[in-house]
Amino acid sequence: MGYAIVWLVNTILSLMTWAIILSAILSWLFAFDVINHRNRFVNQLAGFLDSLTGPILAPFRRFIPPLGGLDISPIVAILTIQFLGILFNRTSAPFLIGVLG
Fold first, then answer.
1. Are 92 and 13 in contact, with CB atoms under 8 Å apart?
2. For a tag site, which of 21, 40, 86, 93 has the least CB within 10 Å?
3. Are 78 and 17 a contacting pair, CB within 8 Å?
């Protein structure tokens, strides 16, 4: 059971990282007019990714101003997620595996 919980937490953290990366790439594609919002699938995908990553990025955007029009909050959020993953794997994961097996 402990291995399953550790796997689930690591998978969720990985999916959050990929969602932030995809959201950032999609926003760049919109900014450079490679794709547009008139495409229904792209618009729905952008809305889904924004609703998924918005609550994660909002605290970082409050404290980190854009640097020359470049939003670096996704980079800081990914670094924070990676830090939390390492912290979880080094501290809580051995305990969960030891207790729950």
1. no
2. 40
3. yes
Are 2 and 96 spatial neighbours (Cβ–Cβ below 8 Å)?
A: yes
Percent over 70 (pLDDT), the chain: 100
| Tokens 């996704």 sit on residue | 74
- Helix residue ranges, H only, the chain: 2-31, 40-63, 73-87, 93-100
In this prediction the pTM is 0.90
User: What pLDDT, on a 0 to 100 scale, did the predictor assign at position 17?
Assistant: 97
Q: What are the backbone angles phi and psi of residue 65, rounded to the nearest 5°?
A: -75, 155
Q: With bands split at pLDDT 50, 70 and 90, how would you rate the model's confidence at 63?
A: very high
Dist CA 71 CA 88 (whole Å): 27
